[in-house]
Amino acid sequence: MSLLVLLLVTSAAYLLYLNWLITDRFEGRRWDLPARVYARPLELYAGLLIEPYALEQELLRLGYRRVATTPDNPGTFRREGERIEAVTRRFQYWDALQPPLAIDVRFDRQGITSLREAGREIAIGRLDPLLVGSIFPRHGEDRIVVNPEQVPPLLRDALKAVEDRRFDDHAGVDPVAVGRALLANVRAGAFTQGGSTLTQQLVKNYFLDNRQTLWRKFREALMAVILEMHYSKSDLLNAYINEIYMGQDGNRAIHGFGLASQYYFSRPLDELELPQIALLVALVRGPGYYDPVRFPARARDRRALVLDLMQQAELIPEREASLAASGELGVWDRKTAGASYYPAYLQLVREQLMAQYRQEDLTQAGLRIFTALDPLAQASAERRVAEGLSLLDGHDDDVATGLAGAAVVTSTQSGDVLAVVGDRRSGYEGFNRALDARRPVGSLLKPVVYLAALQSGQYTMASRLLDDPISITLDNGDVWEPRNFNDESLGEVTLLQALAESLNRATVRLGLDVGIGTVAALASRLGDGEPLPPYPSLLLGAVDMTPMQVAGLYSTLANGGFHTPLRAVRSVIDADGAPLERYPIVVAQVADTAAVYQLNEALLQVMKRGTGRSAVLPDGLTVAGKSGTSDEFRDSWFAGFSGDRVAVVWVGHDDNRPMGLSGASGALRIWAPLMADTAAVSYSTPLPEGLESRWVNYYTGAEVRESCPDAVELGLPRGMDLPRDPNCGPRMRDIGKRTLEWLNDVFN
Amino acid sequence: MAERRIQLSVAAVALASMLVAGCTTLPQAGGPADPAPRPPDAPRDEPSMRPVSESLLQQSRELRLSGDYAQAAATLERAVRIDPGAAAIWLELARVRYAENNWSQAEQLARKADSLARSDSAVKADALEVISDALRMQGRSQEAEAVLERLQR
Hints:
The structure holds two protein chains of two kinds.
Chain A: H1 2-29, E1 35-38, E2 43-44, H2 52-61, E3 65-66, E4 76-80, E5 83-87, E6 91-92, E7 97-98, E8 102-107, E9 112-117, E10 120-121, E11 125-126, E12 131-135, E13 141-143, H3 153-163, H4 175-188, H5 198-207, H6 214-230, H7 233-243, E14 245-249, E15 252-255, H8 256-265, H9 274-283, H10 296-312, H11 318-326, H12 343-354, H13 359-364, E16 368-371, H14 375-393, E17 404-411, E18 417-421, H15 433-436, E19 439-440, H16 446-455, E20 464-467, E21 472-473, E22 479-480, E23 491-494, H17 495-500, H18 504-514, H19 516-526, E24 544-545, H20 547-558, E25 562-563, E26 569-573, E27 579-582, E28 588-589, H21 593-608, E29 624-629, E30 635-641, E31 645-652, H22 668-678, E32 691-697, E33 711-717, H23 732-747
Parallel strand pairs in A: 1-16, 3-4, 13-15
Antiparallel strand pairs in A: 1-12, 2-11, 4-5, 5-8, 6-7, 8-9, 9-10, 14-15, 16-26, 17-18, 17-31, 19-24, 20-23, 21-22, 25-28, 26-27, 29-30, 30-31, 32-33
Helix pairs in contact in A: 1-6, 3-9, 5-6, 5-7, 9-10, 10-11, 14-22, 16-18, 16-19, 16-21
Chain B: H1 2-20, H2 51-65, H3 69-82, H4 87-99, H5 103-116, H6 122-137, H7 141-152
């Protein structure tokens, strides 16, 4: 008797324990929402330089469905030659909830000529941004939670028809199904069929254990019954739809139909049609085994079976079932769509957010994070790095195989980080060289020396200095004798030539003259403020920086001396769409605009006459840049900018071995095509106050006529005395014109 | 205001032509109203703004006047991405920060507008005024005066 009581008490306690376990899990799980990370939304407006094909690709990337008639549902589009009509999706941005827009876009050869919405011309319209990833917890579970109203009724019915026919009637377990499965298993002599209800599958999924012991099955059944006692059928089905495991993407486990729909079709769940719904239901039984990318034949067979069962349950007519079964799987190719997983960029997103948010906020609170990621720039950067490194790998079998590389692309002025590549393999989650590889920058730092010289007021780009052997006794008694790249000294040169051709000896002389401390402080201000050691070797770039830090520094040059912190995240909203945080553009002037203007003119000459001249760029695209090479060819860099883009590329070996490539023979070969892909606007800035345009000889700095050989137009301090070139000096008439301008200036 | 400046510049050119006429032949002295003649294809002029940026700029002005500074700034940042070199957008962003009493950002953004504006533009003059006001609000009256002097030049 007492034994019986003990048994009853133990059982009751166990049931209570299970009850606590399962309800706790069920309640708790409702809130476990990884933050969603979005790329930049594409802004459409008349004047945007984009081809119809590119917009079509963007729509396909976003999972928009092509239709034959005028599109009328969100997420559909039609293209007719140079006209694209689409209905955009409702989307909650940081600043507004944008309802679906029925847009009509017309193109000519240049790009968009008109944008209309519901028949009216509109100035601008946004496409919903691409979902590029999420910040999921360490255990790797990622999901997009959907509400019951976002679930197509057909999906619910199909799940029941395929997985659990008596779902609406049973109490958590289905004795009929169990009996049938048992019989089938006995007949087959092995475990081939399960009789699990959706509720049991849900329980099993909560505890993620695939061992099929009898005790475990019993426990699952008990918990299923307990769940059914506490919650309604619709709550349970919705939990199932959000919980179930649907695939694997590297470290990331795809859970729930909401994310599965995005992952396999790049489309929200409520836009799915019969073939896609059937495929997702087919995957439930074994996302790995029926993986539509790796095993398309299996996936098709299983989908056909699902469609068959749906038809038997009279959910769909036979004709629709067979039509859907015969169609393509329609799973999008994430790689070629340029929408693969972007771990390198996401690391930057996490780093920026970690300052404000706790890890749990990011992995659980359902935040929506809007970034500046440009999928097109990112795809181009990934491709250019991979292709460029393969090409460079071949240049020298001994030292240059297995090169590593990194690239960063940002937007001038706004500081938006558009693309981050940390490895030659896209989607690679390991060492992120763009953010974490600190390497000597070599001549990339030279522009800072020249900027310091220009700011001192003692020099202009037309000033001359000596490029001859120099030796410096260091604090420790060593003597440092910098050499030029080709070991020659050029004697007297202009600052312009010295920088464009990256002359070491001339640069060291100049740096010593303006002061190493001045140069170090300026470099730190132009970049992220990190102090740099004021050693003489700093003048030749013996300082370690990451590609991202270099991008920061060059972005300040591109912005005329205004520092704007680079940012990946623009804004964050919470799960309900309420704005939480915006990261606004912040600017701080850290260098004189006129001095930066003059410096940048020399960086333009780098591309025309100096170390960047071998770059192949589109006609008419004016860019500024600088190469960097560290000692013994261990690092190859190129950094520079157009009017709208800043790009930095690094190439080298992780173990710091020499590889025989200079900045010009290595990184430039990735940088130039990357710039050609992503930049659309030439570098150009208005001539600052206090400067005037003069033509000087590149080698001597003497004033010349525009038509003279080696004539270069420079912005120089107004009224400055320049030696006249004895052979090709300016005509009196030009001098008269300048006097006129000067007078005009005085009177204004 | 702009017209007055042009008249002045024409007068200056005419005066200058009298002064210099003695020693050189002048190309088209006193001709067009552009005070600093430059070849038409010179890339140094302030980039003209696209209609879409004008529209966003107008929208953000209204938002600022209605006191919605966060939305105004967000709208301007959209415009910055489309026309990064347009001084007028940066000037308006400076005004939003000024309205928020963020004097130092107002000053910096206006300095940026100043650096991007063409020397004779109205935007430049307005930018100098915002810089001067923002400096004064930061208690830097002497610097504010100096900026005003630049404006009157």
